[in-house]
Amino acid sequence: MNEIKAASVNRAKLYQLVLFPFNNGATNVYYILTMNYIAYHANGVLGLALMFATTMVTVMRVFDAFTDPIIGMLIDKTSGKLGKFRPYIILGNGIMAVSAVILYFGTRMIPEDMMWLRYTGFVLMYMLYVIGYTFQTACTRSGQTVLTNDPKQRPLFTIFNTVASLVGMGLIQIVATVVGGKVGYGSEAFFNFVIPLAIILSAVLTLLAVIGIWEKDRPEYFGIAGEKKEKVKLKEYADILVKNKELRMLMLAGGSTKLAFSIATNASVACMLYASMMGNYSGLYLPIYIICYAASVPFFLLSVRTAQKKGQKAALAQYTRVALICYVGVLALLLFWKEGSVLTTLSLSHLNLYTILFILCYAVGYGAYYSTADMPIPMVADCSDYETYRSGKYVPGIMGTLFSLVDKLVSSLGSTVVGIAVMAIGIQKLPDTNTPYMEGMKWVVIVLFCIIPMIAWILTLYAMHRYSLSGDRMREIQEVNAARKQAVSEGMDIEEAMEKWKTLKDLEEKK
Question: Is the pTM of the predicted complex or chain greater than 0.70?
Fold first, then answer.
């Protein structure tokens, strides 16, 4: 029994935990470029129609979601000399680099009198980039299953993943802001500097990620059957969705909060709140968000500690409740807001009770939520281990891409929801820092900034109530999987092993 218990725990070395999340940082370099600047390139450099350029960002995000199932299936079928994940990490980054060169430089060489070819080339290279992006980003979630299954280590992925993401996104965002401020975002000079930097930065981060997973990307860490290649088909997705309730609940929690977050933090919502309502965007927006990010630091440490002691389910539920309670205060304060009233106007230069209460409620609420924003990522690995326990199949590619499919679809809806909401009160152009306050804007802000996140957190709490993978339950699953794996390695059929060991009681009887 003790031997099986010891064999059930797969621990990673510290450098592996630190380096592998840079895979997410590497893909986020390209994510920032496409989400924030590709429309500038299409419209400003290539001369493509503005509506086409902005619409393609959403269209390709949806295309990205639907490439996930196919690529997830390919990952699960792979087990070669380079392992299961490294081939797709390396290939994905290479594809993105090639597509970026052609997309941002090759398309310029097409003459203006062949505009149809510019449109075609832009779309085709954008699609190629999406395929490469999905190859690499799918490995972030699925690769965790081989990295570690230790309940005390998996929560650490949340911290290291956040740091790695900030390295990728932060560096390219800072450089882009400085360069764009000098030469303009829609200029050739901007892309001449930023694209080569992005390619090099992403390649370096990819190398770090490959080093991080190198020793773990081996058959002995692939589920119960080890070297056996799973024979998976697209119908596996439907079967897993029907029978794996835990993944469905995690998708509900992760998808609802991702959509709410993309809406509440939308630039138009911030402009309506801080500029139109409070009248001081430049003096409020950045300082308040710095305070909020600072508030998330202690919650990061607390949430990881809670996850290590009680499991990731308990940590996600606990700090979601904190966020929900704090946002009740934010909601009440915005309901009391009155146009032109000094008593209900936010001001950091002349602090009043209203500002103090708003910052306290919002910073604590945002900090509690943000500390758990990436927690569903390591929880996908728990769901993958549960699927191996439930069905005997090791399909981390399918599990990760099922989750990311929903994540990408809902995140693509954020701007659409904001657009519909502002149009409902008669605004025909997205609000900016110069948009004056108008009737009904207060209620739009309340719905988008407070109520939608609160509904998402209620759905998260409901999902976690039905989600059974607590810390103790995951330890039991790992031990049962280890017993089955040992039996299969000694010659037992996987079906017999699945039937023989189902609970800890079965393991105790063996002892």
Answer: yes
